[in-house]
Amino acid sequence: MNKYIYERVKSFCDDNALIEKNDGIVAGISGGADSVFLFLYLLQVQKEYNLRLCFVHVNHGIRGSEADRDERFVEELCKQNGAMYKVFYKDIPKMAQEMSMTEEEAGRVYRYECFEDVRKELGYNKIAVAHHQDDQAETVLFQLLRGSGFRGLGGMRAKNTDVIRPLLAVKKQEIVETLEKKGQSYCTDSTNNEDEYARNQIRNHLIPYLRENLQKETVSHIAKTASYMQDVTEFIDLQTDMVWESVIECKEGRPKEIKAYLSEMKKLHVVLQREIFMRMIEYMSGRRKDITARHIDALTRLTISQTGRKINLPYDIVAAKYYDCILMSHKDRWYHSSQSFTEVYEEKISAGQEYNVTFTNNNSHTISFHTEETGIMTDIIKKNSCTKWFDYAKIKNMPELRYPKEGDYLWLRTDGSKKKLSRILIDSKIPADERKNILVLADGAHIMWIPELSRCSAYYYINDKTKKMLCASIH
To answer: What does the buried/exposed string (b/e) look like for 67-95 if buried means 16 or more CB atoms within 10 Å of the residue's CB?
Structure first.
């Protein structure tokens, strides 16, 4: 192995205490250049650190003969080097369908399940994965584009509980060049060149463009910024720890609840307020995944709302405003409560954005918006229940997703005949206790669309004179 690259990886591992004497390490190996490089590095330092190693390969059942080729390659590589290995197979497309995940997400979940199972089985203490500096830059850009906060911009940590990433100090090109000089073969995943996933588009187009046209050290600079943001995150965590107990009251048991006192919250910087809200959701759900800036912004708006207002959050969490506090609990608590609360959700929409919403049947959906110039629109397309088109020129106010208000109405026909939204919901046999939670797209008091009922106001219908359309899709 190239001595310079070897020393850089070793220094990075030593500085971050990633690999220590007598460690037992389960390492993922796909057969790609990154994991083969990690494989060779771990074998090279095995004797020096007295490491116990086991390499794990997962066949995702996606790429057919190509995946079988990778499996055979890994088996042969491990046998040639006398390395312990285990191979797992899973029908990831089927798993993704059953768990309502993307194949990418399902594959990652299953891989880490395999790593953890082997780690426990062997009594090892660490899991090594082959993420490198380009992966770090890709992750940071992905988080930035999806509107992540400072924590997401920190990217991947070198060490996260028992998972270590020894290669975050080296670039993909350095890995490939080292293997080629050594004459070490590796496998290439053809799907990496496809643009189906956002990450692939960032990897194949955005990063190369930035590197070639703006800054040749794009990858290393973004990785350095991620490191700085991790330091910022640690500092904010420490500050949040210091004020947590003076602001928060937790109630374990049934129902599980958490309360933030607003008089104390107002004394804190807005950064700490937002972090406390994030921690409250994490306390209720046990995770941070799928919690976005929109949810934190909604909680911030709730603090200045009227007493009795509430909002829905992911994982069936409900947050309610009392006189001097924000109370979070699970939905079941409210179903058995004698108190009456008014649902509040108001989100001004923006073209190109996605919005996570929950219908009255508790199913979660994503609604996205974009604009289009008028093209050929067939009657079949116009009747698509998952996508609706509105004449952009007829929209008077910035449309917003919200719940019904007094005075809301729709046009039934293009001749201007109207009907109150409340009467439409009654006629649609929506139970009385659910009507206030029916999500609508509103132009002021004029209701453009009721997604759950797949119903639109006739006023916004497109016609031969329409030049531009607002398109709304449910996923």
So the answer is: beebbebbeebbeeeebebbbbebebeeb
In terms of C-beta density within 10 A (0-12 exposed, 13-18 middle, 19 or more buried), how is residue 37 classed? buried
Q: Where are the alpha helices (DSSP H) in 50-190?
A: 65-80, 92-98, 103-122, 133-145, 172-182
Q: Bridge partners of 244?
A: none
User: Which tens digits make up the pLDDT trace of 383-431?
Assistant: 555 789 999 999 998 888 888 999 999 999 999 999 999 999 999 888 8
Q: Report the alpha-carbon distance of residue 345 to residue 326 in Å, rounded.
A: 16
One-letter identity of residue 29: I
Planar angle of CA 442, 450, 99, nearest 5 degrees: 120
Distance of alpha carbon 106 from alpha carbon 128, whole angstroms: 19
Span 252-283, pLDDT tens digits:
766 789 999 999 999 999 999 999 999 999 99
Provide the residue type at 288 as one letter.
R
Q: How far is CA 21 from CA 88, 123, 373, in A?
A: 28, 15, 64
What is the model's pTM?
Answer: 0.68
Concatenating the DSSP letter of every residue in 376-398 gives: ---HHHHT-SSEEEEEGGG--S-
- Cβ neighbours of 239 (radius 10 Å): 15
Residues 6 or more apart whose CB falls under 8 angstroms from that of 54 comprise 24, 25, 26, 27, 84, 85, 86, 118, 122, 124
Strand partners for 25: 53, 126
Decide if 332 contacts 300 (C-beta within 8 A).
no
314 Cβ contact list (under 8 Å, min separation 6)? 281, 285, 290, 291, 295, 356, 364
Q: What's the N-to-C CA distance of the chain in angstroms?
A: 48
